[in-house]
Design a protein that fits this description.
The chain is α/β, with parallel strands linked by helices and about 260 residues long. Helices cover about 40% and strands about 15% of the residues. Helix 1 runs antiparallel to helix 3, helix 1 packs across helix 8 and helix 4 crosses helix 5. The radius of gyration is 18 Å and the shape is globular.
Amino acid sequence: MAILGFGKTKKSGIAFGGGGTRGIAHIGAIKVFQQNNIDFDFIAGTSVGSMAGAVYALGVPWRDMYDYVLTIRKKNLLPPRTWVSYMSAQILERMADYYLEGKTFDQLDKPFCAVAVDLKKGKPTRLNTGNVSKALSASCAIPGVFQPVKIDGKTYVDGGILRVVPTQTVREMGAEKVVGIHLNSAQADGTQSTKRRDVVMTAYKLSINVNAELCEQYSDIMLKPRLNDYMPYSFKYAEEMLKIGEQAALDNLDKIKALLK
């Protein structure tokens, strides 16, 4: 008689963290995963990490992801940054629809969820039903920059405020072996500026400092691409950030393979 649970394979998960355009580094890591046949059972993402996670869960090749990033940069598809008023989160939704085209979560190849913060409850929330692009816009809605996003009567903002790398989330989905990618591993400093832009971004970064420590506790391996010198709102150094993400994955490749055995 077999012992209950004997020989059961432990499920794995990947958690893509937030970090603005630094998320290009996620594509470099995905490149390494795809080239080495590394597969995960569950996928979760916060903010730009939700964008990367969704297209990864859809099975999009890394090269196609990267070509799209270069298209955004070349055609200047992002609107100019403004600190006078909120930008519409529909901008984010339209960007996501380039690949997702109105798809729902059950149409993805892998179980995936985006993490956003429920503004009323003040808690991180898993978005894993309905329209994927809408959920991604909620996960990416940085307070003070993008308008909050309403889904089914609830209001959401960027998940990075409380869960910058959703390692805990991917464990809640069922993963027992967890790899995370943290794009903002350098501790943020304060600011003496009273400009709206500086205050908003500093407050956002300081909140990341606090919750990143907890996120790391839920990971078995945390990749930390060296992105300290790159602004989280510029595509100018896309090639460099791609290579940095790739190198972070390569540096941990043997550990990841051993973990997933």
